[in-house]
Amino acid sequence: MGRRATAMKSKFSPGSPADVAAFVRAQMLALVVSHGPEGYATTPLPLLPETNEAGEIVEFFGHFARANPQAAMVRDQPRALILFQGPHAYIPPAWVSTPGWAPTWNYAVAQFEVDIRLLPQENDRAIAELVNVLEGRKADAWTVGAMGDRYAKMLPHIVAFRATVIRAEAKFKLGQDESATAFEEIVAALGDTPLSQMMRAARQS
After folding, report:
1. pTM, rounded to two decimals
2. CA-based Rg of the chain, rounded to a whole angstrom?
3. What does the domain layout of the chain look like in residue ranges?
4. Sign of CA dihedral 179, 182, 188, 189
5. Distance of CA 118 to the CA centre of its chain
6. Which PANTHER family does the UniProt entry name for this protein (predicted)?
7. 15-48 pLDDT, tens per residue?
8. What is the CATH number of domain 5-200?
């Protein structure tokens, strides 16, 4: 197993590994980027993070469509990059009363260098765990049983994988360097949006 490392802390670093894990669980859809003989390949995939005792993400669980050429690519060259992007927005000077204030862009991102292992024997588990997370425990939650015989026929057309984290880096640029006045003006202009909610949470942590 590779050694995990995290970038040096800055004013835009998440407060804790748990903050990164919560961000990843909220976004869920990642871009999986890998490289092979014919160049780069990218697939958007919902991924489930797994954490250690310290709350750090150490692995992702997901699946490719077996027909996706990227599945064969990572079999031969398992190193890949997993990218999550959260809410973001351009912040214009018109929103801020401070003279000379320059425009900026607020955003939240997390990236993970990983080694991917294809595990077709875990196909059923990959689907079951994903459905459990997405559908929850509500009374009318959808289950794979609703597919009948089609489910067993579908499983061979996917391939589950686990991605072991080698290196992780996250940047939450959410107004941490703004004055109290500028910050309030920005979140007021954004309104009640996912970005303004993340900004307030980062300010309070």
Report:
1. 0.90
2. 20
3. 5-200
4. negative
5. 20
6. PROTEASE SYNTHASE AND SPORULATION PROTEIN PAI 2 (PTHR35802)
7. 899 999 999 999 999 999 999 888 999 999 999 9
8. 2.30.110.10
